[in-house]
């Protein structure tokens, strides 16, 4: 039964989804009352004008994302759709998320160290050896190497969702080169400017200090505890889809933005070429995948990396964040074992649960999944960004048949998960507020000695297509500012 709510929110229905703003009877949740009052007073033309002003601001500042689609001969550069109805998380909820994020990243860091050293978790039979040696992100070059500060994953992006009862689940771990920091910060800047009074009255946790913590985490990795290390952000270049973010982070943290051609290897060290000659680089925050880091160690045809970088790394003369080989914990099949890692390494129970996941190498899991493809989500283990997925409830018979053949041919390439009813939040569409499904990418920073910090916000990603559960920006999704309340 549809229950009308005021003005721009009248399209809302009481249904089976968990809504961030409304209770089941469409009563406004207490922590959203200020936002609800503010936007209920605004007329559709004013709402549309504000939306247009924000998108124009993003365009003028170059806040863009490069979208690659099979239909396009050339990649399309566009602004990420930004919705100005903030997603609000109460303090008590955030404390649970923060605790769960820190626990998870500590366990994942311990796992990566173990995999490149004693492999105790494999010897104990908790994780099958084939999942490690057959993992495309496993790097034998990292075996026995002690990484600076013991931190494999300086920057992590952990994706969270909520089910129909409002319980949080971890959907995915992004541990190699997670993106989204810039959209979080620029979104906050625009919201605090365009909705200044609402922002000030909402007791929103400050995020500015987190950039200083990010920089401090990178500095802490400098070899020999150097007090004033030279830090460089290594980018693939201006044609990369996340290049705006690379420039933003380099500017905000005051570090050098470099491409591989700007660096040179000499005497087991890495140097930056500049007008003053060669200057030794102490820390590299890399935003390109392992394969492209060093053509002498990985892909020999890479033109993006630095020949000799891994030699300098092995010699202990430079830190790389995130560490090469971290992706072994990024795999979607390995994800299924993170609760076991938490128990094995930390002797704790998981604070946040995984989405129920089926490993298709297991005969019983595979048979169940093949019989129930129309009800499940299937993911290719090594892909991200919403690619290589089947969402059974919305898939065509032809798509289901195609995935069935692919699973039978190479079951280890896929995992399957229960289809979760992602929570929803209001977005502005044509001057009217309407519900769309969302998730949350939380960002965790780790410095030396596993000192961790969770940025008190996150990137709320929005599936802008009505009914869609795919929130990835590479698939046309949008974003929201996320307000964590500090009281």
TrEMBL record:
Residue ranges occupied by any Circularly permuted ATP-grasp type domain in the UniProt entry: 86-463
Pfam families: CP_ATPgrasp_2
The species this protein was found in: Paenibacillus phyllosphaerae
InterPro entries listed in its UniProt record: ATP-dep_Glu-Cys_Ligase-2, CP_ATPgrasp_2, UCP005522
Superkingdom of source: Bacteria
PANTHER family named among the record's database cross-references: BLR5612 PROTEIN (PTHR34595), SLL1039 PROTEIN (PTHR34595:SF7)
Name this protein carries in UniProt: Putative circularly permuted ATP-grasp superfamily protein
């Amino acid at each position: 039964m549809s229950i009308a709510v005021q003005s721009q929110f009248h399209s809302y229905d009481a249904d089976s989804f968990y809504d961030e703003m409304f209770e089941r009877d469409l009563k406004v949740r207490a922590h959203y009352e200020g936002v609800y009052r503010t936007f209920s007073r605004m007329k559709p033309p004013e709402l549309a004008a504000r939306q247009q002003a924000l998108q124009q601001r993003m365009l003028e500042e170059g806040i863009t994302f490069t979208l690659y689609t099979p239909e396009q001969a050339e990649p399309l550069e566009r602004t990420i759709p930004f919705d100005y109805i903030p997603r609000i998380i109460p303090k008590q909820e955030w404390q649970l998320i923060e605790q769960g994020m820190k626990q998870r990243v500590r366990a994942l860091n311990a796992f990566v160290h173990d995999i490149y050293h004693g492999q105790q978790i494999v010897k104990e039979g908790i994780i099958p050896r084939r999942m490690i040696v057959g993992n495309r992100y496993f790097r034998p070059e990292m075996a026995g190497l002690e990484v600076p500060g013991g931190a494999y994953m300086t920057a992590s992006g952990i994706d969270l969702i909520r089910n129909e009862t409002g319980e949080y689940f971890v959907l995915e771990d992004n541990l190699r080169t997670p993106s989204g920091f810039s959209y979080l910060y620029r979104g906050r800047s625009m919201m605090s400017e365009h909705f200044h009074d609402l922002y000030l009255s909402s007791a929103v946790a400050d995020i500015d200090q987190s950039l200083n913590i990010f920089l401090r985490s990178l500095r802490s990795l400098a070899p020999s505890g150097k007090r004033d290390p030279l830090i460089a952000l290594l980018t693939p270049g201006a044609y990369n889809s996340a290049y705006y973010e690379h420039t933003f982070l380099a500017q905000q943290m005051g570090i050098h933005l470099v491409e591989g051609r700007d660096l040179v290897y000499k005497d087991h060290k890495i140097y930056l070429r500049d007008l003053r000659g060669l200057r030794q680089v102490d820390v590299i925050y890399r935003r390109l995948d392992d394969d492209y880091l060093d053509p002498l160690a990985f892909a020999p045809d890479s033109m993006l990396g630095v020949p000799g970088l891994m030699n300098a790394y092995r010699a202990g003369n430079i830190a790389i964040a995130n560490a090469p080989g971290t992706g072994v914990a990024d795999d979607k099949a390995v994800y299924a074992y993170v609760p076991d890692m938490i128990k094995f390494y930390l002797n704790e129970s998981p604070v946040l649960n995984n989405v129920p996941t089926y490993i298709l190498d297991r005969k019983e899991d595979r048979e169940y999944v093949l019989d129930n493809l129309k009800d499940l989500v299937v993911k290719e283990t090594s892909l991200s960004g919403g690619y290589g997925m089947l969402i059974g409830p919305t898939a065509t018979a032809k798509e289901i048949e195609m995935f069935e053949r692919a699973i039978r041919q190479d079951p280890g390439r896929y995992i399957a998960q229960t289809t979760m009813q992602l929570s929803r939040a209001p977005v502005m569409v044509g001057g009217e507020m309407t519900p769309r499904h969302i998730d949350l990418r939380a960002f965790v920073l780790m410095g030396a000695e596993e000192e961790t910090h969770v940025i008190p916000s996150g990137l709320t990603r929005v599936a802008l297509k009505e009914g869609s559960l795919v929130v990835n920006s590479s698939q046309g999704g949008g974003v929201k500012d996320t307000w964590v309340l500090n009281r």
